[in-house]
Amino acid sequence: MKKLTLKEFNELNKLNSLNKLLKVIELLRHPINGCPWDIAQTFESLSNFPIEEAYELQNAINNKDIKNIEDGLNKALIEDLILAEGIYQSNINNINMMFKSGISKVSNGECISRNLPLWKISTDTTNSL
Fold this sequence. Notes:
By secondary structure, the chain is mainly alpha-helical. The protein has 2 domains: 1-40, no CATH class; 42-118, Helix Hairpins, CATH 1.10.287. 70% of the residues lie in helices and 0% in strands. The chain has helices spanning 6-13, 17-28, 36-40, 43-46, 48-62, 66-89, 95-107, 110-114, 116-119. α2 crosses α6 (66-89) and α5 (48-62) packs antiparallel against α6.
């Protein structure tokens, strides 16, 4: 894997957390300069990782193990973003379009309709969120 120059490293560190994570995944999976293991991965070879992470997260939640809940959430997020980057590299879709689709689902009512009590507008001003 190609090492980052000091300028590239400094530019990477200027990014917010999510963009930095996306950039690191992009660098790892870069077809020429990336990590050979990451480059070789396919949807099929990665397909079990999110499931394994979900089971580890469930175990941490059941045990009320906050440190491992956080770790499990981080690993699950990374696995999902690696798969999303694979979709982006396969030109199936653009990763930003995937984010927009997710945001659209939340803002167009899917999240709201599942959680109506939270979103109901109340005239009661004594109990606000």
